[in-house]
Amino acid sequence: MKSLIVSELKVDENLVLIPFKEEDAKELFLLTDKNRGHLREWLPWLDFTLKEDDTLKFLQNVINQADRKEGLQFGIWYDGKLVGAIGHHKIDWINRKVSLGYWLDKDMTGKGIIVRSCEKLIEITFKDINLNLITIAVATENMKSKSIPKKLGFTYEGTLRQREWLYDHFVDHDIYSLLNSEWKEKK
Questions:
Q1: Which of 26, 172, 179, 186 has the fewest CB atoms below 10 angstroms from its CB?
Q2: How open is the CA angle 116-117-121, to the nearest 5 degrees?
Q3: Over residues 114-134, mean pLDDT
Q4: Residue 186 pLDDT > 90, yes or no?
Q5: Are 128 and 162 in contact (CB under 8 A)?
Q6: Contact 90, 70 (CB under 8 A)
């Protein structure tokens, strides 16, 4: 099992991915709360994030996730301000694969922040962690998020029906994948 990188990742002069720390709980909770309506449309965990302590428990879990070598979670910082989150879901070391998840402050959309952040996380996932496959699952009707794997050169694999319970209904997920060999060909 390969060691996981846990340092800050500079994407460009304005954008950096920083591993979450417990001290980020207040700022992350305030960002989540500010974007509650925006995020609730596609993310199922908002009803479990009602106070700062809920965010602290999440952060403790993702810090432990890195310690257990099960994945990395980063705050997305733009011009010194926390604007979102990006990370691995649990790494499957036997099959050398992982899926990515991300979200962004509504006020920061349209600036290419998620695409550039994904590019950096993909780079370390393939180059440094040496996984073979990265997937991104997106609700079929979430057009903005579906554009991300397309821009990144992922291949559409298919649709999983009723994949996720979203508060009061099921949503289908489109699955996109990228192989390490495909990523290397683009480099």
A1: 186
A2: 120
A3: 96
A4: no
A5: no
A6: yes
